[in-house]
Structures are given as structure tokens and as C-alpha cells.
Design goal:
Layout: E1 6-10, H1 16-28, H2 30-41, H3 44-60, H4 64-94, H5 96-99, E2 109-117, E3 120-131, E4 139-147, H6 156-170, E5 175-181, H7 185-193, E6 197-206, E7 211-220
Parallel strand pairs: 4-5
Antiparallel strand pairs: 1-2, 2-3, 3-4, 5-7, 6-7
Helix pairs in contact: 3-4
The structure holds coenzyme A (COA).
Coenzyme A binds next to strand 4, helix 6, strand 5 and helix 7.
């Protein structure tokens, strides 16, 4: 058994549903984090909603109960629209690859991390490498990095990433690319430890224009000289 009762292996047919559920949980964390970051950096959209609500109350009456109610409603609408967006758009879009057949067909390689001992092992992490279609050189995109909450900060993502990068360097891959938002701080720290650098920064609007996201494209090349 490998260190800390964790082992890395390739994805198998029986893992399909478990991996999909785990990735779904990981993706569900992004919208609330992005919403919180939006409020911390610029509260323009919720501020405008709130301002309009307050105006309506003061024009129509000076009832402070109604004002309190409107404040709560504004917060609720902002949060509910995030959840709605997550469930109606982000998740179906992101998990589409799992609906149309076995995901491994779309991936060059896909690994899972299992934790446990003896005969009892459970999947607690995943990562995949997808061939980039617009590229003539052998370049791969790293996707589906996710570790279950209770198993974080135990080095599991690092082991998955090391496995993916070792595979890439052994197979003459020119570079490994990935995209993530600037609010995914744990992931950014993880990737920078492994030599990923920001190549492109894009501004994107999400959640009916309410969220302003910064999407980073990270890249690692020189895989043969990698030290970690
Ligand atoms: C990002 C994620 C995969 C990290 O998994 P993990 O198994 O906890 O990562 P590791 O234990 O291997 O951590 C490696 C390094 O990453 C950084 N890191 C990981 N989690 C961190 C956190 N919460 N805060 C700050 N740094 C963090 C640290 O530098 C850490 O090294 P250290 O523990 O020696 O300080 C995990 O938090 C996750 O699944 N998040 C949700 C999904 C996601 O964001 N996926 C990335 C999509 S691109």
C-alpha cells in the first residue's frame, strides 16, 4: 500500500458514477466562492439591486419592516440566481461529457485517487488529460482535478498531478495547459508549486452578467526538466 493509505490508478468502468458525483461536488463549490469574491471586490450589481429596492420602499412608504424584507430578498435573489445558474447551466454543461458515453474515450488518460485499506477503498480524487484538438503538436489539457473535501491537504492532488505530469514527460508532450478562475486560490497555489505559469488572462461574465470572472490559462512546458 502507498503512503497515507492512498493509491492512484487509472479510471475503470465501475468508477463512472462515483467520479461524476465527486466532480459535481467540486464544481458546486465554485459559484458561491466566485459570488463571495465578487461582493468583496465589486458589489456593483447587488448594490444596484439593493439601491433600487430601497428607492421603491422610500417612494412608496417609510415602512422599515418592508425595507428589512427587501434587503433580505435582494440577498436571497443574488444567492438563488447563483444556485440556479449552477444547476441549469454550469453543471449540465460541464458534466455533458459523462452523459454521452464513457468519459475515458474523450481523455488521453484519466486517473483516480483511492483512500482506504484492505478490501475497502473509496475514490476521493480524480484528474484527466485531454488531447487539445486545435493543436498539431502533442499538447494536453489537464481537466477534472478534484479531491473530496474531507481528504484535502493530504497531498492527494499533488500525487494526481505528479502522475499526470510524469505521464506527459514520458510521452514527449510539449506542454500541459489548464484553465481556471482567479478565485480558485488553492488550485492556483497547487499548480504554481508544480511549475505552471499564467499564459493568458481573460475577463468573462457569468451568472446573467452578475459575476465578473477572471479566467487564467496556466501552462507548464519543459516537462523533461521538471524537478517535482
Ligand atoms: C484544489 C484541490 C484539488 C487541492 O487538493 P488537495 O489534495 O487538498 O491538494 P494538496 O494537499 O496536494 O495540496 C498541494 C498544495 O496546494 C496548495 N493548497 C491546496 N489546498 C490549499 C488551500 N485550501 N489553501 C491554500 N493552499 C492550498 C498548497 O500549496 C499545498 O501544499 P502544502 O499542503 O504543502 O501547503 C482541492 O482543493 C479541490 O478539489 N478543490 C475543488 C475543485 C477545484 O478547484 N479543482 C481545481 C480545478 S482546476
Amino acid at each position: 500500500m502507498s503512503e497515507c493509505g492512498v493509491r492512484i490508478r487509472e479510471l475503470e468502468v465501475g468508477d463512472y458514477d462515483q467520479v461524476k458525483r465527486m466532480i459535481k461536488r467540486g464544481l458546486s463549490e465554485h459559484i458561491p466562492v466566485a459570488m463571495k469574491a465578487q461582493l468583496q471586490t465589486s458589489a456593483a450589481v447587488p448594490g444596484i439591486l439593493l439601491g433600487l429596492s430601497v428607492l421603491v420602499v422610500f417612494i412608496t412608504s417609510l415602512d422599515f419592516m418592508s425595507l428589512a424584507l427587501l434587503l433580505c430578498t435582494t440577498g436571497f435573489i443574488f444567492y438563488a440566481s447563483g444556485l440556479l445558474y449552477l444547476h441549469l447551466y454550469t453543471l449540465p454543461n460541464e458534466l455533458e461529457e459523462f452523459n454521452s458515453g464513457w468519459p475515458i474515450n474523450r481523455y488521453e488518460k484519466f486517473w483516480v485517487a483511492e483512500a482506504g485499506e484492505g478490501a475497502r477503498w473509496q475514490i476521493v480524487g480524480s484528474v484527466g488529460l485531454r488531447r487539445m484538438s486545435d493543436s498539431s503538436e502533442y499538447k494536453l489539457e489537464l481537466k477534472r482535478m478534484s479531491v473530496e473535501k474531507n481528504f484535502r491537504r493530504k497531498g492527494i492532488a499533488s500525487r494526481l498531478l505528479r502522475t499526470a505530469l510524469d505521464y506527459s514527460s514520458e510521452n514527449d508532450v510539449k506542454e500541459v495547459v489548464l484553465r481556471l478562475t482567479s478565485v480558485q486560490m488553492p488550485a492556483i497555489k497547487l499548480y504554481s508549486k508544480f511549475g505552471f505559469r499564467t499564459r493568458r488572462v481573460e475577463k468573462q461574465r457569468s451568472m446573467f452578467g452578475m459575476l465578473h470572472l477572471t479566467v487564467l490559462e496556466l501552462v507548464v512546458s519543459d516537462l523533461s526538466t521538471r524537478s517535482m
